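Can anyone check this?
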Amino acid sequence: MSNRRFSNWAFYVPYGLWIGLFVIAPVALIIYQSFLNLDHHFSLENYATFFKSSTYLMMTVNSVWWAFLITIFTLLISYPTAYFIHQLKHAQLWLLLVIMPTWINILLKAYAFIGIFSQSGIINQFLGLFGIGPEQFLFTNASFLFVATYIQIPFMILPIYNALDDLNPSFINASRDLGATNWQTFSKVTWPLTLPGVKSGIQSVFIPSLSLFMLTRLIGGNKVITLGTAIEEHFLTTMNWGMGSTIGVILIIAMVIIMILTGDRKSSEGRLTR
């Protein structure tokens, strides 16, 4: 019995070390540094500055707003795409093609879109054939939203597809046998039963979109200012790690709130089955 307990503990040791070193320790360090001012003295100055500054508050609003837009556009594209792929004969192959862009580094994809949207890019070359242009597509809000949505689409499609794949076809057949239209079947059966996948996709897209900073520079041309941009400035330019950590703590809190709001709520009725 003691050997079995020892083996169980030994099994969890690598997992515990990984969580402790790469999750708990970095978060604890960020929280600790957020209470240090420029003189490395313990203070609440950073938090007071953040909540009193209209600049930081506007950055927070911008971060949430752009993350919301990216999530909405990603969902509007991903759900029909996942639904269509699920109906195909070789669905797994098409799903693999959707996931493959995630294997490419985000920096490479950003530079690829710079080549597409630039003054001498493919789009302006095509428009030049009709005597149009060159137009300014790069360093605009629209280009930033387009590229950010494109990058996040696979992370929304995958959980939605999995939810559709887990959906029992008998529910769909029963709905149609009872005379429900296609829209009624979707709104009353398919959508509610795949909502957990949608929530997982929202978490996978909204949370990373809150802290975007590379695309805001390379594609948005710093016209889109978010908290991620501020963190980069404080850590790499102003070297005010305390303020950068404070903004990081705010982002962590926002991410936790999003996870709570989009988490599955098990009804107590479901447990009372005996």
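Reply from J.R.: I decoded it. The CA atoms of residues 67 and 206 lie 5 Å apart.
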